[in-house]
């Protein structure tokens, strides 16, 4: 066969791959407001950088006439490319080809690039748009999912794993995103759940829609499965590129540094007005975070889930930092089950990938009540203590106002080996709030008073003046310094420079037992 004929044959095979499920199915995909698998990769990756791997692989199943069925790429596109010049491995499921269903070869292609990502130390990004396991291939499909889940697990904390849900993701398929690090969803076109509405209706006799059961809004606000939600496919993919800019390629590298455009000596006098003098008045801690970060840019993670605590990424003097901040504008910034889970998971991610953690504290404590106690607030709250204690990255803490009781300890206190703890003059560090403390300590004196309410107010004011301030803690060495808010940005940058070379080792062990 002449070379011209061989090249013609190659082109024909590649053209079949590019067409996916064909023009009609591609138009149906677009009609739903969804991009094709290849169009998504074009937006996610740098132009012209994608290199496809195993595109010509074919399935080997013969049941249900599959041996007579053409399945281009076996329903998934795999390969590598770059984002802002940095290597990343990717897969993109093609819903136009057998509904993007996962069979043996489909799973092999994904597993193969996961192995390559580990081998070279590159992040993995998966774009999910699949009807689930390919029923025609039976147990081989289940085996395929298991192979992927195993690799998700051993890759955890080694390379970042990011997933986009851009269509259906149901049954066993949901576990891969859950094991990974970050999940993105798209409004109106994506959903994920273990069992669909029909099964729920059959088993539990409940009528529920796809959106109500596992749509983006549910996972963004209630389950916490979705870390960010895009308005459409393009918006979602651009959000993923933004997140990628803060992450290192693997656990042996530092996060990407960029030359700063913001003055490290820039003062932040706006903090005087952002943080209210009235300790019972709420404010958005994101305003504090944005004020000190480079160019006031804060990429928030889980913005609508457990909003009493904020987590996300930013930069200080060009260096990436992870942010954890109590948020007094929502239930006073109290720590509950969901916020404890949210904060501890983020701390562990940052620690795994060498990202210093800045913690901004303003919390009256852990949430009381039957619902929280019965839901396991003790176990969930302990995760935050465990995560900070285990972290070996630089830990810098700012106590803005309230830091009471166990929550004071849990929020990266000196007692959990934070490297630098600063307080603003508005900080209150105590076992509990003044009124509650006085009602316990001076219970007899108050009960015997002719005006218990007035007596409580007097004693609370005395307690506040004596204990509810940062100076007793500073006198014990639990706070390194009390800082003028206008100098906070510069103080944080200087501390980050000092602890950049921090080297702390934990006792040798196989792994700890986090209180799940």
Describe the biggest sheet?
8 strands, mixed
Q: Oligomerization state of this entry? A: single chain
Helix content: 25-40%
Total domain modules:
3
Instruction: State the end-to-end distance.
Output: 63 Å
C-alpha-based Rg, rounded? 26 Å
The strand count comes to: 17
CATH class of the largest domain: Alpha Beta
CATH architecture designation of the largest domain: Alpha-Beta Complex
Provide the β-strand percentage band. Answer: 15-25%
Number of helices: 21
Structural class: alpha/beta
Question: Which overall shape is indicated by the principal axes computed on the Cα atoms?
Answer: elongated
Q: How confident overall, as mean pLDDT?
A: 93
Low-confidence stretches: none
CATH fold node name of the largest domain: 2-enoyl-CoA Hydratase, Chain A, domain 1
Within CATH, the superfamily of the largest domain carries the name: 2-enoyl-CoA Hydratase, Chain A, domain 1
Give an account of the 3D structure.
The chain has 516 residues and is of the alpha/beta class. The protein has three domains: 3-244, 2-enoyl-CoA Hydratase, Chain A, domain 1 (Alpha-Beta Complex); 271-432 and 469-501, 2-enoyl-CoA Hydratase, Chain A, domain 1, CATH 3.90.226; 434-467, no CATH class. It is 40% helix and 17% strand. The chain has 21 helices and 17 strands. Strands 10, 11, 12, 13, 14, 15, 16 and 17 form an eight-stranded mixed β-sheet that branches. A seven-stranded mixed β-sheet has the order 1-2-3-4-5-7-9, with helices on both faces. β2 (76-83) and β3 form a beta hairpin. The radius of gyration is 26 Å and the shape is elongated. The model has no long low-confidence stretch (mean pLDDT 93).
């Amino acid at each position: 066969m002449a070379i011209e004929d061989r090249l013609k044959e190659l082109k024909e095979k590649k053209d079949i791959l590019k067409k996916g499920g064909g023009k009609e199915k591609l138009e149906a995909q677009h009609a739903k407001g969804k991009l094709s698998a290849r169009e998504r990769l074009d937006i996610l990756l740098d132009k012209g950088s994608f290199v496809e791997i195993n595109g010509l692989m074919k399935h080997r199943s013969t049941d249900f006439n599959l041996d007579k069925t053409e399945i281009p790429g076996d329903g998934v596109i795999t390969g590598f490319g770059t984002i802002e010049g940095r290597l990343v491995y990717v897969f993109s499921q093609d819903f136009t080809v057998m509904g993007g269903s996962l069979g043996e070869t489909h799973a092999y292609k994904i597993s193969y690039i996961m192995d390559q990502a580990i081998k070279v130390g590159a992040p993995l990004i998966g774009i999910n748009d699949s009807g689930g396991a390919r029923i025609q291939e039976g147990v081989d499909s289940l085996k395929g999912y298991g192979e992927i889940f195993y690799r998700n697990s051993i890759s955890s904390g080694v390379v970042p794993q990011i997933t986009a849900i851009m269509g259906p993701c149901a049954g066993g398929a949901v576990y891969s995103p859950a094991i990974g690090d970050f999940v993105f969803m798209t409004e109106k076109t994506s959903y994920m759940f273990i069992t669909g509405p029909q099964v729920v209706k059959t088993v539990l006799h409940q009528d529920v829609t796809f959106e109500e059961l596992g749509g983006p809004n549910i996972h963004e606000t209630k389950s916490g499965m979705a870390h960010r939600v895009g308005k459409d496919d393009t918006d979602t993919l651009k959000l993923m590129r933004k997140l990628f800019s803060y992450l290192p390629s693997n656990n042996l590298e530092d996060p990407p540094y960029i030359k700063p455009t913001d003055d490290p000596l820039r003062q932040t006098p706006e903090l005087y007005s952002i943080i209210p003098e009235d300790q019972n008045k709420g404010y958005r801690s994101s305003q504090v975070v944005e004020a000190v970060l480079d160019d006031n840019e804060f990429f928030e993670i889980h913005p609508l889930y457990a909003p009493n605590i904020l987590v996300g990424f930013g930069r200080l003097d060009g260096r990436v930092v992870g942010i954890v901040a109590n948020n007094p504008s929502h239930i006073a910034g109290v720590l509950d089950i969901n916020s404890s889970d949210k904060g501890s998971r983020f701390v562990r991610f940052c620690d795994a990938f060498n990202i210093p953690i800045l913690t901004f504290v303003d919390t009256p404590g852990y949430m009381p009540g039957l619902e929280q106690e019965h839901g396991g607030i003790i176990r969930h709250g302990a995760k935050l203590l465990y995560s900070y204690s285990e972290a070996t990255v630089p830990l810098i803490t700012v106590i803005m106002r309230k830091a009471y009781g166990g929550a004071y300890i849990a929020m990266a206190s000196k007692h959990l080996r934070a490297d630098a703890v600063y307080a603003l003059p508005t900080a209150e560090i105590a076992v509990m709030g003044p009124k509650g403390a006085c009602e316990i300590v001076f219970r007899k004196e108050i009960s015997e008073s002719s005006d218990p309410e007035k007596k409580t107010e007097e004693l609370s004011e005395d307690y506040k003046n004596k204990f509810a301030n940062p100076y007793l803690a500073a006198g014990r060495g639990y706070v390194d310094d009390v800082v003028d808010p206008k100098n906070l940005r510069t103080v944080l940058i200087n501390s980050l420079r000092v602890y950049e070379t921090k080297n702390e080792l934990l006792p040798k062990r196989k792994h700890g037992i986090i209180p799940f």
